[in-house]
Amino acid sequence: MRSRAADGRESVLVALLGQGVGPSLTPPMHEREADRHGLRYVYKVVDLDDRQVGADHLRQLLDAAVELGFDGLNVTHPIKHTMMPLVDELGPEVERIGALNTVLVRDGRTVAHNTDLTGFTRAFREGLPDADLTDVVLLGAGGAGTAVAHALSDLGAITLHVVDPDLARADGLRASLTAAGSGLDVRTSDPGALESVLTTTSGVVNATPVGMAHHPGSPVPDTLLTPRLWVADIVYRPLTTELLRTARARGCSTLSGAGMAVNQAADTFELLTGRPAHREEMFRDFDEMVSSEVADTPVPPSRETSGERNP
Fold first, then answer.
1. Which of 17, 122, 32 has its CA nearest to residue 79?
2. Second label for 115, Cα 20 to 30 Å away, from 77, 155, 187, 262?
3. Is the peptide bond before 238 cis (omega within 30 degrees of 0)?
């Protein structure tokens, strides 16, 4: 049972674990949504250094979260896989895909979930409802890429090209899709094969950090972006990455990382509190928070793709 604050409101205590998480918009999105529900919601950010991402230290953090009465944790790069064997129970979607991003603490036990999967699925259905999923390229086979791959399978993709410099990791993702009975035709390659792979595909998803403020650039050469492609990017800081900017200029349909960011935050909020999230208000919160960052560069609201408004 959750505690109550001195003013009688239900109190919720959450933390975000990962590297480079200081600028994350997830904590303020949660806190603003909590205000609408009249909750006393405290969201801590724990930015881990390279010495703190090993299993032993993460186990200590999990034990401390239980001992200190946390209601749950958000988990991000680079520990979405490492945390899996440390929790007491895996939700069915975590067992299926092999990565987590949310840990609930209930009656002294930790239970893992993955709202990256549900967040991307919903964002894609709303933002690119008519996208051709016959043949898709996925850039990145890490924790987020794993969730995106399984989401693409659920969405009806037929062939998936997983492109990652770590071929062993890409092969591991292929194995997880096979074990989950996805039926996808999964092919793996390193970035050197990207040009040949993109000549036959219908769309591409960037699930790498390339495009973030601290990892500038684009994972796809400009010349490979043609109007027949749709392009999705899970990066949302900045909202308009170099990949999306170039793709739009070259006539591609695009999807920014905003939809996944907001929907995964809403899904996690619902898991943590048991209360339905006000998603439209959360999208407005998101737009307000990123507006100052893009003040000098006009961009469409986060519920819009290039030329289309998300439902």
1. 17
2. 187
3. yes
**How far is residue 263's CA from residue 279's CA, in Å, rounded to a whole number?**
7
The enclosing H or E element of 204 equals: strand 203-206
8 Å CB contact between 134 and 114: no
Q: What is the pTM of this model?
A: 0.90
Asked whether the CA dihedral 44, 108, 176, 152 is positive or negative, the reply is negative
Rg, Å, the chain Cα set: 19
Contact (CB, 8 A) for 171 and 141: no
Residue 41: which of 5, 67, 75 has the closest Cα? 5
Please state the φ and ψ torsions of residue 308, each to the nearest 5 degrees: -130, 145
| Confidence band, pLDDT 50/70/90 cuts, at residue 309 | very low
Per the prediction, the chain carries an average pLDDT of 92
How far lies 198's CA from each of 141, 205, 226, 229, 277, in Å?
17, 12, 10, 9, 38
